[in-house]
Amino acid sequence: MQEQDIQALSEKCAKLETQIARQHDTVSISTHQLRTSLSAFKWIFKMLLDGDTGPLTPEQQKLIEKSMQSNERMIVLVSDMLNSLHVEDLSLTYKKESVDLVALIDEVLFDFSSESFKRGVELLFLKPSPLPLLHTDKDKLRIVIQNLVENAIKYSNTGDKVFITITEENHSLILSVKDSGIGISQEDQGKIFSKFFRATNAQTKEQLGTGLGLSITKTIVEGLGGSISFKSTLSEGTTFVVTLPL
Amino acid sequence: MKKILIIEDDTFLQGLEAGKLTKSGFEVKTATTAEAGLKILDEETMDFLLLDLMLPGDKDGFAVLEEVRGKKDYKKTPIIIFSNLGEEAEIKKAKDLGANDFMIKSNFTLEELVEKINELLK
């Protein structure tokens, strides 16, 4: 390649990087503004439902409950869209660093401790003996673990346990998240990684959700050079397995 | 009565937050800019800081956090970042600068905020 070509290419790269950074800022600011309005709605609906401004008629109560549910769906959608955009925008810029997977899982589980407690689902992390560090993108891997743990909690029943394990095999770390929740029907199993797809039983169990989580998860795992698979039986539970190269 | 300072530039949200915290038994002070908030912290000792990140003027919430943690009297005062930002990098930066927690406003009700504050004040 000629020196001129190299220079032209690096100029193009620099321009692209600036564009991506600008897009990122726009998305970040828009998300912030959207969330600000959604927060206000959420808090006001809650105040109204709690009777802070006086008693409601049954009809008013029902309407506000519906509005609150709709608002919650928007909040989830904004977060999922943000994650989705980041995954697509930044797929060229996975940044690698040394990552202690056990410590990262501990952080994620800590973040979900109150949610799992609220739903009566126990998170059990079976810690392995010391494992080698991964050379991967920590922030993106965190999204993967968050999505899998969040799904396992959401689709479990009260009193269920979620098991998280890691093993080392063939120069890879294998992360497994196993729940004994609602499971995925045979019919839906081929579609769960598609954008915006939500299984019927998932929609019944959990109204909030956009169908973006697993699509984002798969994109990231593959971007990190790994793979994701699952086994599921309807009404018995699901196990997701993520293989990450060492 | 525990004293809480809210630094939040959106006066509507600030009003809702302050109302809930006052009803929950806290003495609440408010500021809409970093400078005004830092002035309050210098004038009287607060037990808790609820801090937004996007603030008008030269200093954002991160700058406030860094400055507050540099003050002798506020090394261990619980601080929650209460913001509608919330990317991993922002959460990490806030925690590295000494925030006790990072809560994305839209993901929590004000009751959950009060629970978290009480937990950190224990």
Key structural traits:
heterodimer; A: 246 residues; alpha+beta; Heat Shock Protein 90; 5-stranded mixed β-sheet; two-stranded antiparallel ribbon; B: 122 residues; alpha/beta; Rossmann fold; 5-stranded parallel β-sheet; 5 helices; 5 strands; globular
| Total individual domains of chain B | 1
How many individual β-strands of chain B? 5
Overall pLDDT confidence of chain A: 86
The largest pleated sheet of chain A is described as: 5 strands, mixed
Query: How many DSSP H or I helices of chain B?
Result: 5
Can you identify the CATH superfamily of chain B? Response regulator
What name does CATH use for the topology of the largest domain in chain A?
A: Heat Shock Protein 90
Amount of beta strand of chain A: 15-25%
| Rg of chain A, Å, rounded | 21 Å
What distance separates the N and C termini of chain B? 13 Å
Elements of chain A, N to C (H/E) = HHEHHEEHEEHHHEE
* Second-tier CATH architecture of chain B: 3-Layer(aba) Sandwich
C-alpha geometry of chain B: globular
Unreliable stretches covering 5 or more consecutive residues of chain B? none
**Which sequence of SSEs, written as H and E, runs from N to C of chain B?**
EHEHEHEHEH
Domain count of chain A: 2
Distance between the termini of chain A: 33 Å
Structural class of chain B comes to: alpha/beta
Strand order of the largest sheet of chain A: 2-4-5-7-6
**CATH architecture descriptor name of the largest domain in chain A:** 2-Layer Sandwich
Q: Spatial order of the strands in the main sheet of chain B? A: 2-1-3-4-5
Short note summarizing the structure:
The complex is a heterodimer of chains A (246) and B (122). With 246 residues, chain A is an alpha+beta fold.
Summarize the structure in words:
The complex is a heterodimer of chains A (246) and B (122). With 246 residues, chain A is an alpha+beta fold. Chain A folds into 2 domains: 3-92; 94-245, Histidine kinase-like ATPase, C-terminal domain (Heat Shock Protein 90), CATH 3.30.565.10. Chain A contains 8 helices and 7 strands. Chain A has helices spanning 3-49, 58-89, 101-111, 113-119, 138-154, 186-189, 200-205, 213-223; strands at residues 97-99, 122-126, 134-136, 161-169, 172-178, 227-233, 237-245. The radius of gyration of chain A is 21 Å and the shape is globular. The two termini of chain A are 33 Å apart. Helices cover 43% and strands 19% of the residues of chain B. In chain B, helix 2 runs parallel beside helix 3. Chain B has a single domain (3-121), classed as Rossmann fold (3-Layer(aba) Sandwich), CATH 3.40.50.2300. Chain B has a 5-stranded parallel sheet, sandwiched between helices. With 122 residues, chain B is of the alpha/beta class. The longest helix of chain B has 13 residues, at 11-23. Chain B has helices at 11-23, 34-43, 61-69, 88-96, 110-121; strands at 3-7, 27-31, 48-51, 79-83, 101-104. Chain B is built from 5 helices and 5 strands; from the N terminus they run βαβαβαβαβα.
